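For reproducibility, we list the full input for the TLP complex.
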Amino acid sequence: MIDLRSDTVTRPSEGMRRAMATATVGDDVYGEDPTVNRLEAVVAERLGKEAALFVPSGVMANQIALHVLTRPGDEVIVEQGSHIFNYESGAPALLSGVQLRPVPGAGGRLSADDVTAALRPTGAVFPVTRLVCLENTANKAGGRIYTVDRIQRIANAARAHDLRLHLDGARLWNASVATGTPEHAFAAPFDTVWVALSKGLGAPVGSVLAGSADRMARARRVRKQLGGGMRQSGILAAAGLYALEHQYEQLATDHANARWLAERLADLPGVALDPATVETNIIICDVPGRDAAALAEQTAADDVHITPFGPETLRITLHRDVDRAMLKRAWPVLKTHLGRAA
Ligand code: TLP
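The corresponding predicted structure, in tokenized form, follows.
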């Protein structure tokens, strides 16, 4: 099986399994797991924040951040393709009592003007605009990157109106590897930011949320309220530390593989794709006039798995468990099924 559905499907490598098996652990609810403490310190430093918190998933990282940065009834500006708006099961309304304001950004990314235009006037009838959430890379935009400059302009617009800022950095590592910009430079304007260990880095479980020491103390409490307090979670944190040390550089290979495939897909008659938009490990392409779900079923029958990401849109995601040789085997299958115009 060649699984290009997501970078979440990556499995722990042999070295990672060894690091997990030999990790020193303690009870993290007592704050006594040395491996978790080390992971939190390492990630806080890489993100340039005072403190960090290991959480079971990216969704929990987003939801904890929303909870500590808002009050019930607030409005939160998000891009309309964002994970928070589309794939978190309505949790912002359930867990934080906030209303999301989905804003369409050109090519799936917001600009400072988009944020300014979405601000609510003051007045008793309006919700209070409290928070702007960005996603870097932007998944539904095809893994596209928010540059530091663009983020800074958005942050200036937001701060001018006393808004807070949160970054969903599920694939922030990819943005850093692709641009050579350190993670802390991307993270600096944000109150809270999280990064995933369980996507391209290849760890089995976990994300790390970072921010000020005060906010992370509150976040620790919210994590417990959500049932995310874990015990000997150093077993999992060890996988994250191993990934950062040994598997981070590999992300560049995923990007090169994505470009290799994008250039070929773009030449197929049935596919609408500008390969220049493929900046990291995700390819989003349209198949005009054809049923994306049916196409994904056809490629799956030939053992190549991709994700329908809209009625006529497909997502193909590169990751460390698909090397160039496997990709070369996947290519004829993709070519056969996708390469026919409607
Ligand atoms: N994304 C998954 C699906 O849920 C779509 C994927 O296959 O890409 N933020 C972003 C930008 C994400 O892409 C994801 C996972 C999450 C948050 C949630 O992370 P987890 O799955 O760890 O809760």
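The chain has two domains: 14-246, 250-338. The chain is about 40% helix and 15% strand. Both points were considered when choosing residues for closer inspection.
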